[in-house]
Amino acid sequence: MSLFKQLEGDTAVLVAGGVYKVADLYTRNGYLFAASAGGYIRLYADGSTSKDKCRMDTLLTEKALCKDSLGRLCDGSVTGASKLTDAKLLELTDGR
Question: What is the tens place of the pLDDT at every residue in 35-65?
Fold first, then answer.
């Protein structure tokens, strides 16, 4: 049994050291993560990640995006989560 569930067809573009990489998106307890080097990176609504010197460039997902009180990206199932503003959604999804 996996603790992380892949979101089929959903991806994130991550940038580390000037290198852009496409990563599959996963959820865990309603929070969004990207696969990276055999592990998972937490994604934040401001485009930052839990990995040092790595940022999120673009999200490609049909999932409704929210953030919790700490700014962690999540879906609407997380208690206290608030929907992202239209401007923030456009920024994260590169207008898609």
Answer: 998 899 999 999 999 999 999 999 999 888 9
Q: Are 33 and 27 in contact (CB under 8 A)?
A: yes
For residue 39, the tally of other CB atoms under 10 A from its CB is 11
Q: Report d(CA 16, CA 84) in Å as an integer.
A: 25
pTM score, whole prediction: 0.91
Q: Where are the domains of the chain?
A: 5-93
CA 21 to CA 6: how far, in whole Å?
Answer: 17
What sign has the CA pseudo-torsion 95, 16, 63, 60? positive
